[in-house]
Amino acid sequence: MTSQNFHTPMFSPVITSKNEENVELPTSPSNEAAADKAVKGEQSSGKADLFNWMKGSSSSIFSMVAEKAKNSVDAVLTTLDPQMKDTLNPNTFDNTDVVVASEKEIVVSAVREGFQKVFGKGVVRGLEAPDQPFAAQLVGFSAASKATKYCIDSVRLHVVKGPVVAFERFIVEPIESKWYEFGLLKLNDMERNIDLEVYTQSVPVPATIVGLISDDTPKDYEYISTGFSIPVAHFMASNLKVHPSEWQEVMTGVSQRSSLLAASVSLAMSYKIALE
């Protein structure tokens, strides 16, 4: 009988034992250090982000609390002492003078009060402009604008910096036989290239009064191109038996100064907006 040679079968296990699963591959010290450094870096970055978030949140909260506390203190101070309002107002221009091209107290005081209502503190002073080559009673918007510009330009010879304000009254006939008096406040800030104009409320003037003024103005009046030789206030005060500065109040119930003050506040607010 012939003998047969059989090979012993070899089997490779597909599933490893538990001991083999837990075998860890050796790592070098440098790799371990790099891994530790990466983990620590991530932890440090996370802490930094958390700290920055907390810092930003705390800053916002503290700012809100501080602002509310300041407003509360300001409210208490201004209630106890109303004059403190000017001191606490941040929109002041302590180093800037507002020059009014007039020394009439009614004009200077109204402009001063108007600007201080808007800006808080502020120095407003009057400086008389020289005689102007315009009619005693201006007629028309154009004549009033030219007259106020002339006053400002004259004051600019002595005041180079800061805003200069000029005021002129004039009459106009927007509708036939319907005459009204207006006041024009003009501001010029040459440094900042700001030019502003604000008008007072209108005051009705009887057409008969304007007719009398026109008749009494000489035909060869030097400044007839810009108006009449006699102011409206002269005839109105005479007819109403009041002071020339009081006839507007008799006609409208609003005094000349109140009307001028309202226009001054409006002018100051327009100037403040232009500065922003």
UniProtKB/TrEMBL annotation:
InterPro entries: ITPase-like_fam (IPR029001), PRRC1 (IPR026534). SUPFAM superfamilies: ITPase-like. One of its GO terms (molecular function) is protein kinase A regulatory subunit binding. Residues 1-41 are annotated as: Disordered. One of its GO terms (cellular component) is cytoplasm. It comes from the Eukaryota. This is Protein PRRC1. It comes from Aphis gossypii.
